[in-house]
Specification:
65% helix; four-stranded mixed β-sheet
């Protein structure tokens, strides 16, 4: 018999792992800064870091403060109607009471897929969007499980958390790019060490500058997967009924849809959805979502 899982333990465990992973990204940023200041003149460190911080934060924060509008517009969703989507409204209102969160704005996206996402910088600017397929194919308990999962993303401030991650990854990528380009115009700080040591350090710095953005992106994807597990467990906390979300994920797993339907999902917002709308076969390190079988297995043991 499989060991039972406490949703409280699952939430706590995944939150700790998420914070540890974001600390890893920050450590990469500091280490890259060390290479920049050690290989080039130390003044380059401050110049490059300031430029990378300004560019990364400007781009990401503009997206952050408009995340709900951008997401809704990109999937061509329409505001939900209290008359025509009464079950959707009732379910979200129930979950709003259960979670203690304000009622988010509701939207419906035209798609035969079973899918949903939440967006918005905080609970007072949150939106939940579901596909027409979700409203048509899920029963009351399954829809409740999906909505609870999305409300969990709002409750856990996942958009804010992933925005911080994106800023750090962006800073690393920009700093690495500027550093690599700067090497063409600088002979390095040769006063500190002999030529051979300088050459070895430059090679190590180049290798790290190339690998750091790649590794940071992989860690960011790992954080995304942990946040999905956390949302699953928090959703169970709200509903006290893991079977609803489990059955919804099982239906999603066995869905088959056309390429035309996939085109309705912009790749930029795909990580927001409860499941990968493209059902890519690529899993593990390069996936934004945990394997759906793993999610179902955990829910079965809660």
């Amino acid at each position: 018999m499989s060991q039972r899982i406490s949703f409280h333990d699952e939430i706590q465990r995944n939150k700790i792992k998420s914070f540890f992973l974001i600390a890893v990204i920050f450590a990469f940023f500091l280490l890259l800064g060390y290479f920049i200041s050690y290989i080039l003149d130390p003044s380059y460190f401050f110049i490059i870091m300031i430029i990378s911080i300004i560019f990364s934060m400007s781009y990401i924060l503009i997206s952050y403060y408009n995340s709900d509008k951008i997401a809704i517009a990109s999937v061509r969703a329409s505001p939900a109607s209290r008359t025509h989507h009464k079950g959707f409204y009732d379910t979200v209102e129930n979950m709003s009471i259960a979670s203690g969160l304000p009622m988010p704005r509701l939207y419906v996206m035209p798609s035969s897929q079973i899918n949903a996402f939440a967006s918005g910088r905080d609970p007072h600017h949150a939106v939940i969007c579901v596909t027409t397929g979700a409203l048509e194919k899920l029963n009351k308990q399954e829809l409740e499980g999906v909505i609870a999962h999305e409300m969990s993303h709002i409750a856990n401030f996942d958009i804010r958390f992933m925005t911080l991650t994106a800023i750090l990854v962006g800073m690393i990528s920009i700093a690495a790019e500027i550093f690599l380009r700067s090497l063409w115009f600088s002979s390095g700080n040769n006063s500190k060490r002999d030529g051979r040591a300088q050459a070895v350090l430059i090679v190590l710095g180049i290798i790290f500058a190339i690998l750091a953005p790649i590794v940071a992106n992989l860690v960011s994807l790992a954080i995304s997967r942990k946040r999905e597990f956390t949302a699953d467990a928090t959703g169970v906390k709200f509903t006290r009924y893991p079977t609803g979300l489990k059955n919804a994920l099982t239906k999603i797993k066995h869905e088959h849809f056309s390429a035309d339907d996939k085109h309705k999902f912009p790749k930029a917002v795909a990580p927001l959805f409860i499941s990968d709308p493209f059902k890519k076969k690529l899993r593990g390190l390069f996936s934004t979502h945990p394997d759906i079988d793993d999610r179902i297995s955990k829910l079965e043991r809660m």
